[in-house]
Structures are given as C-alpha cells and as structure tokens.
Specification:
The complex is a heterodimer. Chain A is α/β, with parallel strands linked by helices. Chain A is 38% helix and 15% strand. Chain A has two domains: 6-191 and 317-392, D-Maltodextrin-Binding Protein, domain 2 (3-Layer(aba) Sandwich), CATH 3.40.190; 194-316 and 397-413, 3-Layer(aba) Sandwich (D-Maltodextrin-Binding Protein, domain 2). Chain A is built from 15 helices and twelve strands. In chain A, helix 8 (229-239) crosses helix 9. Chain A is globular, with a radius of gyration of 21 Å. By secondary structure, chain B is an all-alpha fold. A two-stranded antiparallel ribbon of chain B has the order 1-2. The chains are: A alpha/beta, B mainly alpha.
Chain lengths: 415, 337
Amino acid sequence: MSDQPLLDRPVTRRAVLVGGSLAGFSAFLAACGTQGTASSPTPGQTATAPPAGTPAATSAPPTTPPVRATYSTELNWANWCCYLDVDPADKTKWKTLEDFKKKYGTTVNYKEVIDANEGFVATIANQIVAGQDPGWDIITVTDWMVARLIRLGWLEKFETANMPNFVANVRDVYKAQTWDAAMAYHAPWQTGMTGIGADTTKTGEITSVKSLFEDDPRWHGKVEFLTEMRDAIGLSMLALGLDPRTPTRDGADKAVALMKRAQAAKTVRDVKGNAYTEDLAAGVAVLVMAWSGDIVGLQAEAPNLKFIFPTEGVMFWTDNVCIPKGAVHKGTAELLIDYCYVPENAAQIEAGVAYVTPVKGVQEIFAASADNKALATDPLRFPPAGLEPKLVPFGILSDEDETYFNEQFATVIGD
Amino acid sequence: MGGWLYRRRRFIPYLLLVPGLVWLIVFFAYPLTQVFLASFWSGSVQQGYSFSISNWTNYPDAITPVLPHIGRSLLYSFAATVLTLLIAYPLAYTIAMRGGRFKNLLLFLVVAPFFTSFLLRTLSWKIILGDDGVVFGPLKGLGLLPEDFRVLATPMAVVAGLTYNFLPFMTLPIYVALEKIDFRLVEAARDLYAGPWRRSGAIVGALVGGVLAALLAMAFDWSIPITAVLAASFGAFVGSVFVSEAFVRITFPLSLPGVFAGSLLTFIPAMGDYVNAEFLGNPDTRMLGNVIQNRFLTQNNFPEASALSFTLMAGILVVVVIYTKLLGTEQLTNSRI
C-alpha cells in the first residue's frame, strides 16, 4: 500500500499529513542515508543538509541566524506538560533553555500552563481582540486550533528570513497544510499519538481501545477520558469501528453515547486535560486516554506505566508553536523557534520528550550517538512505516459541525 | 479655615463615606451593570457584541441545559451548610463556654487555615482524601474498606471540601453570639429545674438527625433509610444525654443570630463556588459555578455566562429573603428576651 504516493491520495489534509509523514520519512531516511551529514555534528552549528530535491535546500542553506544586536532579555512561552528536555543537572530547569540563555542572554519564562486548547486560547482571546499584549511570545497549540487562529487573524507572521534553520530543517510532510501552506504562522513542535495509558500490573494485558469503555473490576472507577474533544471522540469512534478521518454527526452521537454509558456505569473516574498524568502517576487512575510522550515521561517515576497502541489505531496530531498577535518579543521568539530547529538542539529536546519530531536529521544524530542509539528505533519517536494505517488523524470539521461536536461533548465533560 | 469646616460639619459624614462609595461604584456597581448589560448581548469575541432587549432569550437558553447543575449547587451547598453547622456549633460552644484561658489560642486555630491560600487548602484535600492516602490507605490495608473505595471525584469530596473551607465562616458568628450570652440566664434556668432534656431530647434529636441525614444521603448517593436510621439513633442519643433544657430554652435561641449569619456566610459562597467541584469532583459533580466559569473563561460566551451569573444572584437573593422572613434576626432577638 505504500507504493502509492501518499501525498496524492484524495483524503483529508490530516491524512495527507500523516501519510506524508511516513512516506516522506522514508524518503528522508534514504536521502540522509546517502549524504550522511549528521555523523559528525559540530555543536551550535547546523550540520544536516536537507534532502536533495527540496527547493529549500538550494534557496536557503542552513546557517546560524544572523546575530542581531538586540534580543530581549526575557521571553514568555506557554506550553503543555512533558514537552521539553529537563536539565539532568538540575531537574527544575530546562536544558535547552539554559543553553539558549547562555548563547543569547535571554531568560525564557517557560510555563506548562496549557491543559487544553480551548481553555488556554480563551485566556488570551480578550487581550488579542483588544490589541493588547497577550502575555506570551510563544504559544503551543494543536493544528486545528492553529487553523482557527490564522482564520481569526490572531497570529503574528514569522519573519522567515530570520529563521533559516526552520526553513531548511522542517520535514517536508509538514508543508502540506492547506491553512498555512507557506508556513508563515506556525512551526510544528511535536507530533504525537493519543492511545491508552495503563498500569498493566493492575489492568493486565490491554490491546483494544474498547477496554476504556468496558466495566471491569480491575479498572472500575479508575478510567479517565481526555477533555480534548477530538481525542476523546476519536478514540470512542475507533472503539465503535467508525473512522475519525471522516467524522459525522451520527458518529459523534454514538461516540458520546458510548462515553456517557461508561460514565453512568461509574467506570470513569474523571475527564481531564493534561492533569490526567497526575492521577496516573498517583495510581488513582490505571486506564486512561493518554498522549504517547507523556507516558514515557512518567515512566522515570512509575516504571509500571505503559503506553498502549491499541489494535484499532491511535489518534494522530501535531502541536505547533506560534506567535500570538501583539507578542512583545516577536524577534526573540523567532530566534528561539529557529534555535529549536537546529538538528542537534532538536535531538537534545527529543531525547527528553518522546514525541515525533518535525526536524530533519534527529534520527541520524540518535543513530550515530553512543548514549541515545536506542532512541533512533523507538516507535513512539519514529513510527515505523508499517504503522501508517493505524495513525488516525481527526478529519476536518465545518464550523457548524465543530459547534455540534463540542455541544455533544460538553455533556461528557460536565460543564 | 477651621470655622468654615465647622459650619459645614454636617457634611463630614458624607465626606467620610466618599472612599467607600467610590470603591463600591467602581468595583461593584459598575461591573454589576456591565454584567447585566452583557446578559442581553448577542455575538462573539471575534465578531463583537451588540445589545438588544430581545436577547432576553439568553436567560432560558443558558438556564435550561444547566438545570442539573443548579440542582446540585443547591443540594451540595445545603449539605455543606448543615454539616458546617453540626461541626461548628459544638466547636464554638466549647470555645465560648469552656475555652478558659485558651480561648484566644483556640480562636486563632479556627482562623489559622486562612493564612494559606484557598486553592492550596482545597488541593491539600486531594492528598488527605487520596484513594490510598493518609486516611483511606491504612483503612484499606486493614481490610476495613474495599480496595476500589474512593471519596475523591465523588459528591462527598466536594461537600467535604465546601464544609472544610467555610467552617470558620460558621464558627466565628456562632462564637460571637454564644460569647455574648449572659450566663446568669442559664444558671437561673437550672435553678428553675431546666435539667437534662431526656425524652423530648431523644425525640427531637431523632427527628432532626433522621431528616438531615436523609437529605445528605441524597447528596451523597447513599442508601437513604440506612443513613436516616443511623443518624436518628445518634441524634436521639445526643439529644437525651448531652442536651439540657436550659440549652434548649436559653442558650440555643440566643445563639440563633449567629447560626443565621453563619448559615448565610456559608451557603451563599458555597452556591457560587467552583474550586471544590473542579478539584475534588468529577464531571458528575460539576456545580453552577463551574458552568459560569467555563462559559466565561473557556467558551468566552459572555452573554450566557452573565445571564447565569444574574440568575444565580437573583436565586440567592430569593433564598436569603425567605430565610430572613422565616428566621429573621429582628424577631429572634426581640421575641426571645
């Protein structure tokens, strides 16, 4: 099935993204394999040439961004939990941000304040509409939310001329987005999967997403759903044998009914945003809808936790970094985003976060390194090509459908 | 200068009122008017809002889907008020009547939790009530509780949080009321044979205990008959053994203004609270405060949020007026002495 050019398939843009990510990924592997540029990286320099045939490769060779005289001394970045590498020397700090500070003198106020897309964007909406400083220079939101923010005119346009590493090193598959084809408003941060997180010592072997909705004494009252509508409805649709790539109102009704049935049976303890990780770590939840990299992050403290890739598939999505309208440190924000697109820096981040990186050359750096060799073949970081049909992106919703889905889903959240 | 001021001295009280009035206008009257006007808006953050009286439909549109939340708010707030009363009354009584030289220290202990933030106090209950936490962990270890027993993410946790957080608001007014009582009245009553309450105490105790427990059982989803019978027996025991007729005829009636104030100070904030339901509950325990918070901050649906806020305020006002009519402090204090 992988013979057909994935990018030409008449499917949704999400499917394009996903399909492309794997096809492009193997092409990319092949390209890098022959060039072998990542084998002797010099710290602080970009070492990886983009794959041959990429227009960007000839037009914008990767360089260190021009060091401008003035960068702000502070920068405010809102992100989700488990999305940056912890400094091994000081667990309260972020290694990448410490390095960035050393190089450019900017202190990054990095806050894991985002628990859910809708809830976070609501906190900056008023400032943006009023033309005020939203308080953040970089925000991290999922692709459907980026599309909405662009439509509303709530994002600053990147000065891509100042971001050569980003232009050169973003993987080709991410360039197919219809809502920002020029990639002038968003830079992919991490791609991940929504599957099952479980303490298998308590639940036993879990293989199917259906387990989330079954009443079983081993996880009765210890199941948690996510408040992200697309993740929760998506996984429920998979459990019902429906395809979230083409979401229908009927499908949403059935998915919501499935979740409400589990809630009525008191199987479900709570419906949460990123805070589900606390309950899982504390052992009060043992079977949850989970984001892939989170579980890897938790395993350091709780080794019995596992991310399970259900037989029906996982939801597949990308979170992106953007600059909100009115951000006061736009130039420095671009500098930091570009910094994270230097493959060595991306590899350092990736070693700590366990999601799929949008940056070229990271897998090669892992493969060539002594400490992180195993990461190069980690299916959570680099999903193998055979997994492609199981990586399910949520289809595009019209505004009316989105409202309908949210209204139905609100009965699950309880608000 | 002094003469000028002296001639106009009758204006001085108004002058002294100015800071308070300005504060009220800027931080209470103006925002309240804004919220009221917003409840007649239509539109969205992106497209802007427009005001029209015909948007009164915001009210039914906002209220209809959240009727269960309103019901829960009433039930949980009532349960919390009853529980705080049951806990605070003996506490305040002990401090006021038996506190002796430790009175101030005990009062300080009642207020001490206020030195930490409301949020932290609520979050710490997640640790206390944790499924395998300090309370339930050992009980489960001893096999006294089933392995999957939990309180967090249930109505009980929400009511417990509300009860705990508003306990000082109940304790302090009752303490003040009890403290003011002239103890010679009680002594006189005892001289006039107002001894232990005995049979009447058992009957009243059983009735009060049974009815309150039945209502609490509704809130907690417990078996109503079993809870009611247990509580009725307990009430009868307390009524007949611990309560004297002097207390029933003198102390309790004189402390009612405190009970009245404490109940309002507990019930009103509990009705609007969303922190306890958010952190200690789950989707099945969300209260009206959570809905308003969600409409304001997550959905940016200001018209519906404002309509709900005003409905809540009006509802509380009605409850308070009824309560005042039934148990008004005026009649209480005038008629009993």
